[in-house]
Specification:
Oligomer: single chain
Strand content: 15-25%
Strand order of the largest sheet: 1-4-5-6-7
Largest sheet: 5 strands, antiparallel
Radius of gyration: 59 Å
Distance between the termini: 124 Å
């Protein structure tokens, strides 16, 4: 039984290491090819036997680097064989659409999401024209917004100029000094507030005249006299109470003896009466 981990190799007695010559294989010309393990990137139908190959089926494929490029991105071609008739199927990467393109040996199944709007794939010129149109529409919207902002700004400037002209004309008409300040103070007040102040003054004047005699003296009510009499009597009573409170009995330092409580009845103890 041989060892699982072989550390030493067997060399025959007639082995001569100097007889081994180092040779180099010729460089392969053409595209670089290597064997890889991959899954089918899309569902397809073989054109030779009609076999359907579903997406995700694993294959041992040959990967070839082509000379084609898309914006410095290399395009790779893959070779696989049909699982039924062993026919060769090739497809390559499509970095422009982030997808794969079937070349020969099979036909790709229809997928709704690839052509949802039913249009053909646009060329480079069509794509550039579409981008130019979108850019023009975007610029038109920006220009419209700019015009709207300019119109708003002009309206604000015109309103400010009108207000300045009106203020200057008013100052010239009234003149300088206290007249301008009085006019500004009167116009600053609300007319409703001025009317309310006038009504309050009239009510105060009527109330003052109602409680004044012909000679101008204030009329006294009966309740005020009774209150004055009652306040005098209450002062006398309060003074007497204060005098009684001031006379306090002298302090006594005699010890008070507390009577002890009898807890025998609470504990259920009955005392017999003394015989003597």
């Amino acid at each position: 039984m041989s060892e699982r981990k072989v550390l030493n190799k067997y060399f025959p007695p007639d082995f001569d290491p100097s007889a081994i010559t180092r040779t180099r294989a010729p460089k392969t010309s053409g595209p670089k090819v290597q064997t890889v393990r991959l899954m089918a990137p899309f569902s397809m139908k073989c054109t030779s036997c009609g076999e359907f190959i579903y997406k995700g089926r694993k294959f041992n494929a040959r990967k070839e680097t082509t000379d084609e490029k898309y914006y410095s991105i290399s395009i790779f071609r893959f070779y696989i064989r049909c699982t039924r008739c062993s026919g060769e199927i090739t497809f390559k990467t499509d970095p422009k659409n982030m997808d794969y393109t079937c070349e020969k040996g099979a036909k790709r199944n229809f997928e709704v999401w690839r052509n949802a709007d039913g249009r053909k794939e646009e060329s480079e010129e069509e794509r550039l024209d579409r981008l130019e149109r979108e850019e023009e529409e975007k610029n038109a919207m920006v220009e419209l917004e700019t015009k709207t902002l300019d119109a708003k700004r002009e309206m604000q400037i015109a309103d400010a100029l009108d207000e300045i002209r009106t203020r200057n004309a008013r100052n010239e008409r009234v003149g300088k000094g206290d007249g301008v300040e009085d006019l500004i103070g009167e116009r600053a007040k609300d007319p409703m507030e001025l009317e309310r102040e006038r009504v309050e003054k009239e009510i105060d004047e009527q109330a003052r005249r109602a409680f004044m005699t012909e000679e101008g003296a204030k009329v006294r009510r009966l309740g005020e006299e009774e209150e004055e009499d009652g306040s005098g009597r209450s002062d006398i009573v309060s003074r007497g109470k204060d005098r009684d409170r001031d006379i306090m009995p002298p302090p006594s330092f005699k010890r008070a003896i507390k009577k002890k409580k009898d807890f025998s009845a609470a504990l259920g103890i009955k005392k017999k009466p003394a015989l003597v």
